[in-house]
From TrEMBL:
Lineage, highest ranks first: Bacteria, Pseudomonadati, Pseudomonadota, Alphaproteobacteria, Rhodobacterales
Gene3D superfamilies: Glutaredoxin
Protein name: Glutaredoxin
InterPro entries, per database record: Thioredoxin-like_sf
Length: 123
């Protein structure tokens, strides 16, 4: 398991700066994850994000898509999401309020007929 910096190891003078870093974007994702069964967080021009979305569409699985910039824009917003989730790449895919990973992990779940997630069960 990747070690995380303890909140006690952050100096009081910067705690607010750390916790407020693009918190609006993090809250937007938290709200979507709480409200919807499947959420894909991605960015423009990323072919892996497009593959994940296409796979969900082909499987007939409804999802919410949140897009934050492209390779050259809004990187700071995506950084806040990476810091929050601990997942370093896009897409970030959430199923039943749990981060399942990215496209490779999604493909494995879609191929598994015994997938535990009700939101990914085929109709």
């Amino acid at each position: 398991m990747r070690p995380l910096l303890s909140p006690d190891a952050i100096h009081p003078a910067i705690k607010e700066t750390v916790s407020a870093y693009h918190s609006d974007i993090v809250q937007e994702v938290i709200q979507a994850v709480a409200a919807d069964g499947v959420v894909v967080v991605g960015m423009k021009q990323n072919p892996i994000v497009k593959k994940a979305r296409k796979s969900l569409q082909v499987a007939g699985i409804e999802f919410t898509y949140l897009e934050y910039g492209s390779y050259t824009s809004q990187w700071h917003k995506r950084l806040a999401l990476k810091m929050w989730s601990g997942w370093a790449t896009f897409p970030m895919i959430f199923v039943d309020q749990m981060l399942i990973g990215g496209n490779a992990e999604l493909q494995a779940l879609l191929k598994d007929p015994d997938a535990q997630s009700s939101s990914l069960k085929r109709i």
